[in-house]
Design goal:
single chain, alpha/beta, Rossmann fold, six-stranded mixed sheet, four-stranded parallel sheet, 38% helix, globular
Length: 297
């Protein structure tokens, strides 16, 4: 299995971020770079796919079907992971097919993914049991992974993001699009550790319901979701956010993008200014990747 079958030293690297506002607040901010092992197949997407693909192999199913939008990181990662593991892949893509594929879909197609475009109305049925059954009949015994890898197997993979050395951090903060990563991280917390999800889209109830559903009962009081930094919705941004991303990239040499990690670090820095964290608190931000958005432009 060519994902993360064992700990990789690249994904366990932690870097401290220095900034006057951090010093003033009296906290310590670190970032865990799980975006680094591979230019495309990296970040939380790899962790979400690990046990899904293993389950497909265990069930002797050689085709994986999943869902995503035209610029989906998950679609790209699934195509890459299936290609590496000699599996066929199918992508149910939201929206009309364009004459020319965008870089993300072109990459997925080049990795062997069969792209099937559906209307937005049909796409909204992606979690409907009858619709799922119709896809299994149409595409013949495929293993289906939900959009974004948002299932218990995805959560299980994300519970492996933190290493033993990360137990020294008080607070783990991650971007939150389906709450799968947040739930996995929360399930792996120990003692007085807590986790925070920074919502990147306007879906407060959806995210909380997902996280509760995926989180172990005894850990459900360890997480919180902050919904103040989505900038209007998924993939929405502003001049202020764009400027923050540019400045952060230049000052830290840590590349971020405006859809996930840009909102994550904007939120963290703003929360630090607002004294959200206790003095001497050790904060660990998870860089979940998403740079495929930039690399395939």
């Amino acid at each position: 299995m060519q994902l993360f079958s064992s700990r990789n030293t690249e994904i366990d690297k932690v870097f401290q971020i220095n900034h006057p506002d951090i010093d003033t607040a009296g906290v310590n901010l670190f970032v865990k770079r799980i975006d680094q092992p591979d230019p495309i197949l990296n970040g939380n997407k790899s962790f979400k796919l690990k046990y899904n693909l293993l389950e497909a192999i265990n069930q002797n199913l050689n085709t994986v079907l999943t869902f995503g939008g035209a610029y989906s990181n998950h679609i790209v990662a699934t195509a890459a992971a299936c290609n590496k593991n000699n599996l066929q892949s199918i992508g149910i893509i939201r929206g009309e097919e364009k004459k020319d594929l965008n870089p993300s879909l072109k990459y997925a197609h080049e990795k062997g993914m069969k792209l099937h475009f559906v209307s937005r109305e049909e796409y909204r049925r992606k979690d409907n049991i009858e619709y799922i059954q119709s896809l299994k009949m149409k595409f013949d015994s495929c293993f289906i992974v939900p959009e974004g890898g948002a299932n218990k197997l995805g959560v299980k993979g994300c519970s492996e993001i933190l290493s033993l050395e990360d137990k020294k951090f008080n607070c783990i903060v991650t971007a939150c699009g389906t709450a799968t990563t947040l739930a996995g991280i929360t399930n792996s917390l120990i003692n007085e550790q807590k986790s925070i999800g920074i919502a990147v889209l306007k879906a407060e109830n959806y995210l909380n319901e997902n996280c509760i559903g995926f989180t172990e009962k005894e850990k459900q009081n360890k997480y919180s979701i902050i919904n103040d930094y989505h900038f209007g919705g998924y993939a929405k941004q502003s001049v202020e956010l764009e400027e923050f991303v540019k400045k952060f990239n230049n000052e830290t040499n840590i590349e971020i993008e405006p859809i996930y990690t840009g909102k994550l670090f904007y939120a963290i820095m703003d929360l630090i200014k607002k004294k959200h964290f206790k003095q001497n608190e050790n904060i660990l931000a998870i860089h979940t990747g998403g740079l495929q958005y930039l690399k395939l432009k």
